[in-house]
Amino acid sequence: MSLARYFSKWRGTTRGSPPRVSNAEVFYSWLGAFIGISLVTWVNASWLNGADAVLMIGSLGASAVLVYGAVRSPLAQPRNLVGGHVLSAVVGVGCWQLLAQWPDLATFLAPGLAVATAIGLMHLTRTLHPPGGATALIAVIGSDDIHAAGFWYVLIPAGLGPLLLLAVALVVNNLPATRRYPETWW
């Protein structure tokens, strides 16, 4: 491929922006995200506060965009939502534990290794969920509490958080006749 042809791909296509969704779609996306994230926050504050278990991680916000705002996307389906987070958490914790004994090496290699390996394994297991990459990254760049949790991080927050979002998605996304969730479980 010529260099000119390569750079011409950077221009994108002529399709334009995606169409605007209806006000009802905006409302149900908002409602689901509000209830889902609020539920995760409430469970964290009510049941896990003081237990060194951190349920609220940033990648759950990105998952909320998918499961409430792009309900038909293959990346938003339950297998991807839960599987992507759990698998990525295992990878992230594993990379941290493998490389933490060499702090200088871990600082530079663990983040890239965790995210890249999580993406590869999500592809291989058909659980690709972009926020999973952030879950793997949080496992290696997170606080001392995250590191101390070890593989418990896989259960809380990476397992429980997406399950709470999924429960809300099942209820809210099926309220209007124009929405259906999930498209597929497996």
Explain what you see.
By secondary structure, the chain is mainly alpha-helical. It has one domain. Helices cover 66% and strands 0% of the residues. The chain has nine helices and no strands. The chain has helices at residues 3-8, 23-48, 59-69, 78-99, 103-125, 131-141, 144-149, 152-155, 160-172. α2 runs antiparallel to α9, α4 runs parallel beside α6 and α5 packs antiparallel against α6 (131-141). The termini are far apart. The mean pLDDT is 93.
Fraction of residues in helices?
55-70%
Overall shape: it is: flat
Strand content: under 5%
- Compute the number of strand runs: 0
Q: Which regions have little confidence, pLDDT < 50, spanning 5+ residues?
A: none
How far is the N terminus from the C terminus? 38 Å
| Structure class | mainly alpha
Mean pLDDT level = 93
